[in-house]
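Q: Here's a chain of 741 amino acids. Please give me its 3D structure as tokens.
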Amino acid sequence: MNMPLPDVCMGGRPRPAAPKPAKLPYSAVRSISTCFAAAAVLICLSFSSGAAPSQKRVALVIGNGAYQYVPRLPNPAKDAAAIADMFKKAGFDWVKLSQDVGNLQFKRALREFMDAATDADVAVVYYSGHGIQVRGLNYMIPVEARLATESDAENEAVSLDRIVMALEPAKRLRLVLLDACRENPFLRATKWRGDMPPPRRELAKVEPTLPETMIAYAAKAGTTAVDDGEKSPFTAALLKHLAVPGLDIRLAFGRVRDEVLKHTRNRQEPFVYGTLDGEAIALVPASVRPRIEALDDVKGDYQLVERIGTKRAWEIFLASHKEGLYVDLARAQLAKLIEAEAKSGLPSNRRPPPTPPKPSAPSVEEQSAWDRIKDSDDPAKLQDFIARYPASPLAQAAKNRLDVAGRAALERENKARADREAAQRREEEGKRLKAEEAARKLAEREAAQRRELEDKRLKPEDKPPASADGGRQKEVAANPASPPVLQPPSAGPIPVELGRRVALVIGNSDYRNAARLLNPRNDAEDVTAALRRIGFETIIGLDLDQEAMQEATIRFSRAARDADVAMVYYAGHAIQYAGVNYLLPVDVKLTDTADLRRLVRVDDIVGDLQRAKKLRVLVLDSCRDNPLADELRRAIGTSRSASVERGLARISNPHGMIVAYATQPGQTAQDGKGRNSPYTTAFLKQIETPEEIGTVFRRILNDVYEATERTQLPELSLSFVGEFYLRSRAEQTATPVARQP
């Protein structure tokens, strides 16, 4: 069932107040308003005095306000902290507070909460932040979410269904509190397909399928919640009423609803979906601490029970309230009912219901019209019958048939839509796979063509004479008639054939929260061109933010799976903390160590490189002077700042790998005054030479050391067996020398 909060547990218009006692044992706070229909609900409740003190209670509290791509929300962090504190003071066994969480942190918190809820009697999830409704489903939005299209909601946000699933292990009460119906800027920043129902800023109503489950919204379906003041109105009311010892949860929500309506001048009405059994349950057991209740609260409950007037209703009242004037009056009322019951022999809780009037039989005309349409699913025919015979006893049967037909039509429509979406996804996936296959084949053809042209260009008869001996070169030049011959290389390691080569090249210059670096963008562009000339398929990224860096590394990881050689070349800011190296996106802001989770770990890059079959190369021209390291050092304080370093830590590289740093571990590298950094300048000079790759990188080291006047010494780590050449086979295995006369 679903119900507005006051309809759960409140009474009607107040009767004339009983005489005020001369001395109040408790302070008056507010009066309770409601409607008479609530009495029927309360009759069904079979109350006890509250939750047993031995019950296990757990709570997860999440407040998201520091959104990265839309304006911040002022209250969720404060609201969440206050709610978590309330649960702790109420004696909950396990309370976890998570603030400003991303998608991964949100889902990890839910998994941890689900483990804690095992064997729990009461489980509560409170969420404050942005929420959105897409295609009838509700999603809570992490702080780093970027909803470019409606399909992003499923991946970027966390569904309400997932939150409810985390409550499933609880045995007695499952409760979700959603202060998430605010005005939503994500709707303006997102492109939505025209053939789909538009997303809504408010949340959709939900009927929980789990028993003993309630979902409380800050605002009823179709409306938005207010977020002004020191705390949101909904959270302020929860703090005031939810943890009242011994107060049944349904009565508590009734008071929350009245409080919010009063504060917002009827602009915001909280709503609850779900149902509980008849037994009373309080979030805080009555025995936790003594409480002096508000007089008006007790008076309102007294007036409600007085309207019901049954023995069981008075027993409920006395179970919830222990002392005071109205408690004494309730005992007197209960005594009267017991006395009357003893005299009549009929229990007061079992008053005979009034005999309903016997419905009149339908007329011949009505019956004839009904017989013609009673098996029809046509809404027009059923509606016509109801309009023609509104007073007929068959009109209700027509309405029931119309409801069934409507639900069946809706189910058919939902199934057809789901089938269309599944077919569309399959079609799009097929197109994507075909495009990837076509791109792969094109890249292979282009690489083969480049190798063929290179082999033709470097035929032995066309190659210039080469020799390690300068005098021998002069002899060949003086004897042009002597044709060159091919001489096998000297004995040594056998060159390894290299096949498909892929590379990821990133250059981050335009940092938003630090001074702009001069050269990384140029470095990345020039390195990409050089690698393509020697047969690499390259993925290039320039000035990448957090999301773009993650996407680039994912693309590279997939490309490296069937490659023989994989290389990553990074130019930009990097940092090490506690011995772990991180690469910095251009939108990074390091306020504390939690922000390190937004960065790219070099260890993850190394893992992606390991997918290549023969050779892996990691080049880090990223040890530049980094003001962001100083910012993080100041933020975390002197006791931990020693763990923050500008330079990078040495990596323990696996077999078959080259790791090249622009400078020594713990040192900083120069950015250069020309187009490229000193390291990239040397790399561009040597990488296309027809030399064994170990020799190439040693020459790069020497060039940098000399170019910087011996102030910057790169670090090089080689861990492979055999000889690897990045140029063609013709240049690897034969050296032309002059034929002897």
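Q: Can you summarize the key feature?
A: The longest strand covers residues 57-63.
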